[in-house]
Specification:
- The chain is 45% helix and 12% strand.
- The strands form 4 sheets. Strands 3-4-5-6 form a 4-stranded antiparallel sheet.
- Strand 7 and strand 8 form a beta hairpin.
Length: 433
């Protein structure tokens, strides 16, 4: 992992905290969670306030996610809104945090001038023991606190203001007036500074969860589709009248679900050729074949000419695998006919030719599932499923790891937005941290 850390491919783009007053506020939040304060004078945080340095110090990577549910957060500054989420058990943690920031921007700006916001993304369950526990999470409630009770003081001041305006002779209450002056000195003018978050409840829509080896939950009106390992507790037993279950290795039914629910784009020349999607899939496949069948290759020598030479020298291996000839045939047909009859392809091969519909609300989650179906494409895996990428990366040889890192640096990391727009069709700069 050192190479990934060196190039900011893990724990990258975090916010460095060095100001003593922010370190002090962070410690107050840690202690409120029942954790020891940090002795560090500087550390980095993500959008939720998770710090890899503090996790190492505490020897607890789950210190803000102890039960892998009801995720804790620490907000020191509004600048956290633009940060990634680098450690989470749910794929939609980032989108929920974005929604909280967006709905309560004024309050977050006002409170963090003087205090730290912390709390939990509260869910309906305390522990996840089976699929039913995950399905029961329909909305989350941001349970927000402040270390110096700024929210409580603002609410008390608001109540006094209401009494002053509504109750006859309230202005004669000297003790109340003195208390209002004291509170205003700490909170500022609450008529101008909205200190109390206005919206704290948000829907928990489609998501991936790291429980039970990874579980995908898709919602369509009143029906739900769960895709995961069939050994997961509750598989096909939890809400069978409402939930459709598909094993993660049942490629045929996964493809059928994605197609029938309108979540994928089938292969058409209008997007596959212009985007370079097939060229990308082909390059990723060849690198995977080389790493598997010729592990002693020095990958720094690999270029287009070298690849063609390797294909010719290993024609039998390439033919037996079958995927490279399939992609070549698909490209020829797309150029000739403008479309490819996807149902004529072997079921496992179909996933190499499709992508999520860019305008679908689940597009990030769908592409995450597709990256699981096509593990040879380590770039797509890194973009959409960093959890899976890091696990796969550990199985690579040292030389291949270096090549993977260089490939990411020279493709996706050069311009993330442009790369996502070209290859996956995203019109907006969206992320799902």
């Amino acid at each position: 992992m050192k190479l990934l850390v060196k190039h900011d491919l893990i724990f990258g783009q975090l916010l460095e905290i060095t100001e003593p007053h922010l370190v002090e506020r962070y410690n107050k939040a840690l202690q409120a969670f029942g954790l020891p304060g940090t002795a560090l004078t500087s550390f980095r945080i993500d959008m939720t306030g998770f710090s890899p340095e503090i996790a190492d110090e505490l020897d607890d990577q789950q210190y803000l996610d102890p039960n892998a549910v009801n995720r804790r957060f620490i907000i020191l500054t509004p600048a956290q809104e633009s940060l990634p989420v680098v450690h989470t058990s749910f794929s939609n943690t980032g989108s929920l945090m974005h929604a909280f920031f967006d709905a309560n921007r004024r309050a977050i700006h006002a409170v963090t001038i003087r205090d730290v916001l912390y709390g939990e993304i509260g869910e309906e369950v305390a522990h996840v023991e089976d699929i039913e526990d995950l399905l029961s999470i329909q909305e989350v409630n941001f349970e927000v606190l402040t270390a110096d009770n700024m929210l409580g003081k603002a609410e008390e001041l608001r109540q006094h203001c209401d009494r002053l305006l509504d109750a006859p002779n309230a202005w004669r209450d000297d003790a109340m007036i003195e208390r209002m002056v004291e509170l205003a000195g700490q909170t500022g003018d609450i008529r101008q500074n909205a200190l109390v978050p206005e919206k704290v409840i948000f829907r928990h829509d489609a998501f991936w969860s790291g429980h039970f080896g990874g579980i995908f939950v898709f919602l369509d009106g009143k029906s739900t589709t769960v895709i995961c390992d069939p050994k997961a507790p509750g598989f096909r037993r939890s809400r069978p009248w409402q939930v459709s279950y598909i094993p993660l290795d049942d490629h045929e039914h996964i493809f059928e679900f994605l197609q029938k629910s309108g979540r994928i784009e089938l292969p058409h020349a209008s997007w596959t050729l212009q985007s370079g999607y097939l060229d990308h899939r082909t390059d990723m496949l060849l690198l995977s074949l080389i790493h598997k069948h010729d592990p002693d290759v020095r990958f720094e020598r690999v270029d287009a000419i070298w690849l063609q030479t390797w294909i010719h020298r290993n024609a039998k291996t390439v033919a037996e695998d079958g995927r490279y000839p399939f992609l070549q045939a698909a490209e020829r047909q797309l150029r000739a006919d403008g479309a490819f009859p996807i149902k004529e392809a072997d079921i496992a091969d179909r996933f190499m030719l499709i992508r999520a519909k860019p305008d679908h609300e689940d597009c990030w989650l769908i592409n995450r599932l597709l990256s699981v179906m096509v593990p040879s494409d380590f770039v797509s895996r890194f973009v959409f499923d960093k959890h899976g990428f890091y696990e796969e990366y550990e199985t690579y040889s040292e030389d291949f790891r270096a090549h993977v890192v260089n490939t990411l640096l020279n493709t996706y990391l050069k311009d993330k937005s442009a790369f996502r727009r070209r290859l996956y069709g995203f019109e907006e700069d969206i992320t799902d941290a």
